Amino acid sequence: MIDNPKHGMSLIVKTITRLTIGLILIFGIYIVLHGHLSPGGGFAGGVIIALSFVHLMLAFGKDVAAAKVSADLASNLESIGALMFLGVALLGFLGGSFFLNILEKGVPFKLFSAGTILLSNMAISLKVGIGLFAIFLALVILEKSKE
Amino acid sequence: MILYLLCLSLFCIGIYGVLRKRNLVKIIIGLGIIEYSMNLFFVLLGYRLHGRAPIDAQNQDILNMVDPLPQALVLTSIVIGLGVTALVISIAIRIYEKYGTFDITKIKKLKG
Amino acid sequence: MFNAHFIPLFVIIPLLGAFLVSLLGKYLKRAFVDIFSSLICFLLLAISFFGLITLRNSGTSVLAYKIGGWIPPFGICMVFDGLSAFMLLTVNLIAFFVCIFSLNYMEKYTDKPKFFTLFFLMLTGMNGLVVTGDLFNLFVFLEIASIASYALVAFGTEAEELEASFKYAIMGSVASSFIFLGIAFLYGFTSTLNMADMSRVLSTKPSTWLVPFVSVLFLMGFGLKAALVPFHAWLPDAHSSAPASISAMLSGVLIKTLGIYAMMRIFFNIFGMTSAYSSVLMFLGALSMIVAVILALSQWDLKRLLAYHSISQIGYVVLGIGLGTPLGILGGLFHLFNHSVFKSLLFLNSGAIDYSANTRDLKEMSGLKEKMPVTANTNLIASMSIAGIPPFNGFWSKLIIIFACLQKGYVGYGLVCVVGSILTLASFMKVQKYAFLGELKEKYKNLKEVPWAMKLSMISLAAICVLGGLLLLPSLKFFLNDAVNVLLEGRNYAGIVLGAASR
After folding, report:
1. Model confidence band, residue A126 (pLDDT cutoffs 50, 70, 90)
2. What total of structural domains would you count in chain B?
3. Could you give the CA distance from residue C98 to residue C120 in angstroms, rounded to a whole number?
4. How far apart are CA C131 and CA C85, in angstroms?
5. By residue range, what is the domain housing residue B36?
6. Could you read off the pLDDT of C51-93 as tens digits, one per residue?
7. Is residue B10 a contact partner of residue B40, using CB atoms and an 8 Å limit?
8. pLDDT surpasses 50 at B109
9. Interchain contact, A38 vs B55, CB within 8 Å
10. Which of C31, C78, C123, C221 could form an SS bridge with C178, CB 3.0 to 4.6 Å?
11. C177–B38: do the CB atoms touch at under 8 Å?
12. Is there a domain that residue A6 lies in?
């Protein structure tokens, strides 16, 4: 991470950011994976994952964040997320009807119970997270081009 | 009953914001207040007396929960509101680039 | 159950197409985007024809599909009956021709893959709204289609387009929140979201104040989406500033599915039509007819004039449906189909003029008939259709609506229809005179006709205009009669759908 004093916020903010964005990302992934056991799921977990990237952009400036996830990569990942969700829904056709839950449902209250809900949560979190970060990136690029 | 009336008065405050304010960003904030009050009203409809949170835990029985269906629907509605707000804000930024002002009484190229 | 598997395809195919075009459009050649988009629209049109024939041959009046295998009060079910088949065929037909037209027209704008992504998302929303049987699912698809259309109106990012899109977005969002409030009240009272189940519960558990209150909220919300007169202020700006193929989609199908189809489904099949709703709908329809046609007489911008005429013709449809008699509903639905066809053709013509001559102002163009004969002739056919001149299709539907008014004894409303028709004819004679006849101006000496893809879609739509009256022949009349019978069933819809879903 570049420590350029002209871009971004002060040194204290940059130090703390280096420590916390990993924790925020892991917390977001935890909420996504336990979507069928505790409150949360795809949308809420996706927003928290997006927030870790936005935190990076706010503290270090636009260039560092755009080097990690560029605008083209964000657009492609978003489409892949939506196609994954549609793929999970179409898998239900193998069992008989659209959106049917075909993977086996194991013991209740364990991590791998409830079939395809885990896969759809992961697809939704990818789409929502990357989408929210792409909105921020687009608004910031718009701001820069105005000057 | 008093909670529902307060929700509807929040809705009226949002409508006042959309109708009477002249700055583009204040109109967007009014729209946001309208959407929040709608979501709050829908969640409050699911309340049952002495109910607890609708989470299926291992050693508690299923009776006495509040209604979980409005909570799932409001999750969808919040994301719809997020999408509309993002779109309208980017349109507002571009309007500032083209017209030079945020005042709606001066953005009047389309007439008749 | 075997022959109902095609119903989710109406939502899956455009959604798949939207994200595949967004992903692959940047890396493959330009021809890929063109061929792929036309293929998807053609596939949708083929499946809607297939669905119509399957429904006809299956012997029952409703095909129901349970998503995920969950039975209806607990899961979402998709319902395919006569009215859905009618609306789906209209939507997919117009979408196919507009897609072919925009292959060439959108070259003037930047970023064609993004345009097709938004276009297919709007088509997903409209198809899903017509096919669903669940009230909150209807709201979600309504929002998908609306948000895609807000973004499409602002696609060119000129100053006027952005202003029009902002107004449309704010007004549309406020209307959606009124609809959401109505759905919240209905859920609180009946504790179910399935439309058939809700209709059954509402007939057994009466309440004096709930249904009128919620119908006023729905009238405000869906009335704004359908552009009835007190709620029409967004339409002239939005439809005139959008790119021409999007104006054709918005004015041709979006205001009909989002506004009129949803209102019909809720008022006829869930609440049951009473004489109070009848008189309100008829009054709003007649008001739209007259106010919009008078405001259109003073316009010099071609697309703004066409947008005001959209509001007026939607008034005819609402008047016909509001009558409630079999003849009235037949006239209203037939006029809905006809208006989609000739209004899209008129907007595509204005797009062709914009593509060649770069202008939209009627005072600037003249004498385009010698350089652009295909555009001029199709415009003549569409203008005669909208004014109601025999034997084009507009004449038949307006005649049925006027007969239905007189049959029920409303002579005043019939007179209003005739006056509206005469003023419409006056407006379109003005368009013909200023745009096509007369002397060719100096700066237009080098005009060329539009490319073959645009000519193909215009000629096909004009052919449907000419042959549209044949839909009233007894062998083809089943297409309209099935749709009319669904609305006349009223609240029996509930029993039929729940019976079909339990098989």
Report:
1. very high
2. 1
3. 12
4. 9
5. 2-49+64-99
6. 888 888 877 778 888 887 788 888 888 888 889 999 999 999 9
7. yes
8. yes
9. yes
10. C221
11. yes
12. no
Neighbour-count burial of C208, counting CB atoms closer than 10 A to its CB (0-12 exposed, 13-18 middle, 19+ buried): exposed
Query: Which chain C residues contact residue A101 at CB under 8 A?
Result: 68
| Contact: C19, A83; criterion CB under 8 Å | yes
For the question of an ipTM over 0.90, the answer is yes
Residue C442, domain extent = 294-472
Q: Which residue do the tokens 């949708």 mark?
A: C44
Radius of gyration of chain B, Cα coordinates, nearest whole angstrom? 20
Distance of residue A99 Cα from the nearest chain C Cα, in angstroms = 5
- Helix, strand or coil, per DSSP, at residue B46: coil
Query: Taking a C-beta distance cutoff of 8 angstroms, is the pair C288, C228 a contact?
Result: yes
d(CA B23, CA C32): 44
Which sign, positive or negative, has the C-alpha torsion A11, A14, A18, A22? positive
Q: Which of C19, C20, C78, C132 to mutate to test the interface with A (most CBs of A within 10 A)?
A: C19
Q: Which distant-in-sequence residues (6+ apart) come within 8 Å of C432 by Cβ?
A: C379, C380, C383
Query: Who's near B104: CB < 8 A, 6+ residues apart?
Result: B22, B23, B24, B27
Which whole number is the average pLDDT over A23-41? 89
CA distance A34 to C456: 54
Any idea which residue has 């000496």 for tokens?
C445
| Six-digit token string for C343 | 């209004």
What residues make up the domain containing A93? 11-146
* Residues in Cβ contact with A97 at an 8 Å cutoff, skipping those fewer than 6 apart: C5, C65, C66, C67, C68, C69
- pLDDT tens-place string over residues C175-188: 999 999 999 999 99
Whether the model clears a pTM of 0.90, i.e. scores above it, the answer is yes
Question: Does B93 reside within a domain?
Answer: yes
Comparing A1 with B24, which gets the higher pLDDT? B24
Q: Does C15 map to a domain? A: no
Chain B CA closest to residue C300: B112
As given in the structure block, the two tokens for residue B2 are 């008093």
- Residue C70: what residue type? W
- Return the structure tokens found at C449: 């006709």
Most confident of A61-65, A107-111, B57-61, C327-331: C327-331
Residues 6+ apart with CB under 8 A from B73: B42, C136
| pLDDT for B112 | 62
- Give per-residue burial for C52-74: e unless 16+ CB within 10 Å, then b: bebbeeeeebbbbbbbbeeebbe
When pLDDT is averaged across residues C386-410 and rounded to a whole number, the result is 89
Provide the pLDDT confidence category of residue C1 given band limits of 50, 70 and 90: very low
Q: Which H or E element spans position C79?
A: strand C77-81
Residues shown for chain C: 503
Confidence label for A23 from pLDDT (cuts 50, 70 and 90): very high
Question: In this complex, how many residue pairs, one in chain A and one in chain B, have their CB atoms less than 8 Å apart?
Answer: 21
Distances (CA, A) of C395 to C100, C176, C256, C401: 28, 35, 20, 10
Highest mean pLDDT among A62-66, C114-118, C390-394: C114-118
Asked, for residue A3, whether it belongs to a domain, the answer is no
What distance in Å separates the CA atoms of residue C347 and residue A124, rounded to the nearest whole number?
Answer: 38
Q: Do B110 and C147 touch (CB under 8 A)?
A: no
> Could you tell me the CATH number of the domain that includes residue B8?
1.10.287.3510
Domain-located, residue B58: no
Each residue's pLDDT tens digit, C309-354: 999 999 999 999 998 888 899 999 999 999 999 999 999 999 988 8
What three-state secondary structure class fits B39? helix
Residue A106: what pLDDT? 66
Structural domains in chain A (count):
1
CB half-sphere exposure, C38, CA atoms < 13 A? 12
| Chain C hits for B98, Cβ within 8 Å | 158-159, 162
When mean pLDDT is compared across B30-34, C6-10, C113-117, C444-448, the lowest value belongs to: C444-448
